[in-house]
Design a protein that fits this description.
Blueprint (H helix, E strand, L loop, with lengths): L12 H20 L16 H7 L5 H7 L2 E14 L2 E7 L4 E7 H4 L1 H7 L7 E10 L5 E12 L15 H6 L1 H7 L1 H23 L3 E2 L5 E2 L11 E4 L4 E5 L4 H9 L4 E9 L11 E10 L3 H20 L3 E4 L2 E4 L5 E4 H8 L9 H10 L4 H4 L6 H12 L8 E4 L21 E6 L2 E8 L4 H16 L10 H8 L5 E7 H9 L18
Parallel strand pairs: 3-5, 6-10, 14-15
Antiparallel strand pairs: 1-2, 1-4, 2-3, 4-5, 7-9, 8-9, 10-11, 11-18, 12-13, 15-16, 16-17, 17-18
Length: about 500
């Protein structure tokens, strides 16, 4: 009995790429001989896969063939099945997939022979008529088929796709080719941003654009990226927030403005942080922080309805209910509700000892010099923040860490400020704006002193912004909402990198 013939060893990517380059070389040679074009650009698809499926859903094969419905499609070949004088292929375009049926009788022996040498990943154009196979699958019976782009690199295994998560982020183009969920997630993101923009415009807000290169970084406590402007011969900073420019526009008479903006902060990277991220900031004259909370709540619900199709969500397997009024707690109330601190919440000595037990050092956090309100914020961040799963507005942040927010008239040690928490993370930050020019100048001076003491996230003194306030800014409320984090929630994405097309990564070596 003869030994079975061993299966050929699988080719590695380098061998497959070499084979594909040889095929491209042959195409270029044919072009030199006047036989076609290696990379033609004269094919115009007229139909999308999803639209064809939708338009002919439930239509029987007999009717399709009687009507001779024409289809002209183009896309990437994801599957191929060769069977002598006939071949099946699956074409993927931006909308979905549709099957092709290529026969020798319809396209000719030369075209069929060429098709058999095409590879998965190649971009193909096809004209033909619609029919249904015996299994009922809508397909295009090709009358002509063309190779439009030769793919030189093989796609990942069709059953497993890209399994390395970092590779998915680094080579997003391959991730989008092979993972329908990834494509859907980013289409959902686009729909969500459009929904936010539409909601703002419908409520009388003017969309504006403000500088991304700032001579002075401002609008947030954050470490900026630095660059140099050659023509002006001066140091510049990538925007950490558009706030101070948007408020200048309120001074100028635009009562309601918003910007969907890119911000840059030279800080850590995590599942919740990317150094380049998207925010939507808006400002409304004659609003205070309570008006902002009402509006933000409505905006989040609207985005959820658009992206997720409802306001009762699931994130990480746990329910998130946006239909109920969002909770509103002061920092002190949140500590009392979610910890065993009790009366100790107002004891600076107890809070300092508790924070040290939690691992906060005196050297880095300057615990002994902080006010009671500031210590409560630190304790809240360490013990309560992650417990706020359902939507919760946390209010009344200390004045000393809120240099742009209006102080509470009755308790000047805290501000009319809130942060929105959902699933244990911050989604937004808003406050009644400080419009007292002299008080703003004093706050900036305190920030400069903090920077001189080593706080590299403290703000600079912005003389022009103070000058703008001196012309008079009406009472105003302003809020920033993290678009990336909101899209994480609405698409049930575990990491911010899953909703950013090209997240920041260490450069490949």
């Amino acid at each position: 009995m003869s030994e079975p013939t061993p299966s050929p060893a699988p080719l590695d990517d380098n061998q497959l790429i070499a084979e594909r380059r040889e095929k491209l070389k042959a195409l270029r040679e044919q072009q030199r001989q006047g036989q076609g074009v290696a990379f033609p650009n004269d094919f115009k698809p007229q139909d999308k896969a999803a639209a064809l499926h939708s338009a002919h859903e439930g239509v029987a094969n007999e009717e399709l063939e009687t009507r001779a419905v024409r289809a002209v499609v183009a896309g990437r070949m994801m599957l191929k099945r060769v069977m002598g004088k006939a071949c099946f292929a699956t074409l993927q375009d931006a909308s979905g997939r549709i099957q092709l049926y290529i026969t020798q009788d319809a396209v000719g022996p030369e075209v069929l022979a060429s098709f058999k040498h095409w590879d998965l990943g190649d971009i193909v154009g096809c004209e033909g008529t619609l029919f249904r196979t015996k299994t009922g699958e809508l397909s295009v019976k090709a009358t002509s088929v063309r190779l439009l782009t030769k793919s030189l690199r093989p796609l990942p295994d069709k059953f497993h796709g890209m399994t390395d998560q970092e590779q998915k982020y680094r080579q997003r183009y391959v991730d989008l080719i092979t993972d329908a969920e990834a494509r859907q997630r980013f289409m959902a993101r686009s729909q969500g941003v459009s929904a936010i923009r539409g909601f703002m415009v419908e409520h009388g807000f003017l969309e504006v654009e403000t500088p991304m290169l700032h001579p002075i970084p401002g609008g947030a406590n954050a470490k900026p990226f630095k660059t140099h402007h050659n023509a002006l011969d001066q140091e510049m900073f990538l925007r950490i927030a558009p706030e101070l420019y948007l408020k200048r526009l309120v001074v100028g008479g635009f009562d309601r403005v918003f910007e969907i903006n890119r911000n840059f902060r030279n800080e850590g990277i995590s599942v919740r942080h990317n150094p380049e991220f998207t925010m939507m900031e808006f400002y409304a004259a004659y609003w205070n922080y309570r008006d902002l909370m009402d509006f933000t709540e409505a905006l989040v619900r609207h985005a959820a309805q658009t992206v997720a199709g409802g306001q009762q969500l699931t994130y990480g397997g746990k329910p998130v209910d946006l239909t109920q009024p969002f909770a509103r707690l002061t920092i002190r109330e949140a500590i009392l509700a979610h910890t065993e601190a009790g009366d100790h919440v107002d004891d600076t000595g107890w809070l300092i000892a508790a924070l040290r037990k939690l691992g906060l050092s005196e050297e880095k956090n300057r615990l002994s010099t902080r006010s009671l309100a500031s210590l409560q914020v630190l304790y809240f961040e360490e013990t309560v923040e992650e417990k706020l799963w359902q939507p919760t507005f946390i209010m009344e942040h200390p004045t000393e860490i809120s240099p742009l927010a209006r102080a509470n008239d009755e308790r000047p040690e805290v501000t009319e400020r809130f942060e929105l928490y959902i699933t244990g993370r911050e989604f937004g930050n808003g406050f009644s704006e400080l419009n007292d020019a002299e008080e703003q100048a004093a706050r900036f001076q305190a920030q400069v002193a903090a920077k001189d003491s080593g706080d590299d996230e403290a703000m600079y003194y912005d003389h022009d912004f103070v000058r703008a306030l001196e012309y008079g800014m009406p009472p105003t409320g302003g809020c920033g909402i993290g678009v990336d984090r909101l899209m994480m929630l609405l698409t049930d994405a575990p990491s911010i990198r899953d909703v950013i097309l090209f997240p920041a990564l260490r450069r490949e070596i």
